[in-house]
Amino acid sequence: MTILVAYVPRPEGRAALDKGIEIATRRNERLVVVNAGPGGRQEDPSIVNGYEAERVEERLATLPITAEFRQFVRGKSTIEEIEDLVAALQVSVLVIGLRKRSPVGKLLLGSMAQEILLNVDCPVLAVKASS
Fold first, then answer.
1. Are 13 and 97 in contact (CB under 8 A)?
2. What's the CA gap between 55 and 102, in Å, rounded?
3. Crossing angle between the packed helical segments 112-119 and 78-88, to the nearest 10 degrees
4. What span, in angstroms and rounded, lies between the C-alpha atoms of 87 and 110?
5. Which of 92, 61, 71, 85 is nearest to 13 (CA)?
6. Is residue 19 within 8 Å of residue 107, measured between CB atoms?
7. Which sign, positive or negative, has the C-alpha torsion 49, 55, 59, 60?
8. What is the pTM of this model?
9. Which SS3 state, helix, strand or coil, does residue 39 take?
10. What H or E segment, with its residue span, contains residue 35?
């Protein structure tokens, strides 16, 4: 089985990564960390840059379990990429990070976390970054 972590280079992404590492190590399961987005937008803050990708890969290399970092920037939405991975891998749990948003922000911008919760066919663990 596989623990899948949806990673963004923000505190909530780092919280999801920490929890995913904890769960995968405790269960001795494979860990796949994914960063995905449609691309094409200038400086998308959800896309990991080269330095951040190296940091994540170096951290994963030190783990006592099989772990890998995957990045997709190829026209599909983040939700589509995550759904594809859940379908392709035997995912026992998907770990996502949540950020605090105002009610108006939720209404205007929608919620990627909500879309993930409603659309993937595996258990989802949502974690918050510590304040």
1. yes
2. 31
3. 30
4. 24
5. 71
6. no
7. positive
8. 0.89
9. coil
10. strand 30-37
pLDDT tens digits along 63-94: 999 999 999 887 788 889 999 999 999 999 99
Two structure tokens written together for 6 = 């949806």
d(CA 114, CA 78): 13
- Tokens for 17, please give them: 């990564």
Show Cβ contacts of residue 130 under 8 Å, excluding neighbours closer than 6 positions: 11, 15
Residue type, 43: E
| CB-count burial class (<10 Å; 0-12, 13-18, 19+) for 84 | middle
Closest CA to 38 of 9, 71, 16, 5: 71
- If one counts every other C-beta atom within 10 angstroms of the C-beta of residue 15, the result is 20
Report the alpha-carbon distance of residue 10 to residue 47 in Å, rounded: 10
* CA 131/CA 121 separation, integer angstroms: 30
